[in-house]
Predict the 3D structure of the following.
Amino acid sequence: MDAGLAGQASGEGLVGWAAALLLLLSMVLGGGGSPAPIPEIVLQLAAAVVALGVVASPRSWQSLRSAPRLAWVIAGLIALVPVLQLIPLPSGLWQALPGRANQVAALELVDADGGWRAITLSPARTLSSLLVALSAGLMLVLTAALDPRGRARLIAVLALVGAMTLLVGAAQLSGGTASALRFYDPEQIHLTGFQANHNSTADVILIAMVAVAVPARHWLDRSGRGLPRWQLAAAAIVIDGVLVLGLFLAGSRAGLALLPVALLFQYLILRPGRGIGWTRLALSSLVAGTAAAAALLLLRGNPAVQAVIGRFRFAGEFRPELWRDSLFALKQTWPYGSGQGTFMPQLIAVERLEVVDPTLPNRAHNDFLELALEGGLPALLVLVAIVLLLLGAFRRSLRMAGPQVRPQVLFGGGVMVIIALHSLVDYPLRSMALAAAAATAAGLLIPVRPKQTQQAKGSLP
């Protein structure tokens, strides 16, 4: 290897470890959401340090600059809407925007209605959203710049975080409300790990379930072909059984509903060849379903299990009421939106008196609806553009991918599908942890540069 190739490999190595560190910090520190600003600030500072470190090293900066152009385009689109919302407009323009009548009336009381103001109704909240978007965009570009070995390391980090979540969660459940490992809510009764929201914990576990299949597939390709099938099946049942138990104890209804999606992508990664063995898939699903039913039957007397089962009665479900008020709030500022991060004050202002209670409506529990409210039509157009670009990248990657890369691409697709489906009834991307996981998955969908694939052959762990 000549000096130029050695320098490039060294730069990619630095970028790879920087990406792994940032992803690990994001998954551990980024699960509190806006009610936990200190960990988020620490994480954003860490992202800035990582970015400066990569830029400061000529070799790593060269490697990052050579990331596929598509990654830079998508990262720019992620930050586009909050940037546009922060641009000051003359008074005649911002006052004419829908939903600004109350703001204008309040500013008239203090003779401050004549200055320039941004589209967003809360620049501070939108700036906070922009910082989160920049962190996610950085994670995406770092991932896309890596060779297959570096990408495999990121998937291993997500699998490791799943294991750490189960260990911390076990300590949380055994310690009860007295547990010092309840990082955000000591009264929480579910397994939460490093997340404040147990629904986010479910996503972390589902992602880990798909993640463990990738190194398993690589290991089988290298050395495991001669193993008896019963040993492979037993190992899969044990690992999945532990993860499914953790998923159940997280108490997320949507998480349990998405379990078949995670198992499907796990199967697609582990299966030999490119065809789908429907008979084997059906038998595996039957065995998994039977094992889950038997476990529920054995544990039905456990208080934690009873609490989770009770959630499926859907008693007092509040989401339809939130969606109704969110749609009304959306119409007030359509098509420009109220500004990224402004959902809570916007909804409180229009919330119907008959549904007001001591809790605060912090999220719409539908990320697409909340995005439309805050970002308006521009945000929806950006979302459609990103989805189309990623779908195209996914198709190209699968077509080009060899046995090394194909499991990584399928993992990225699985993560994106899980988060997208969960976003219909919750807000996974409002967590910096899951935003980083989604950004990593998006980066994995972007085709690896051919030279990187050749250099990484035979070097995957």
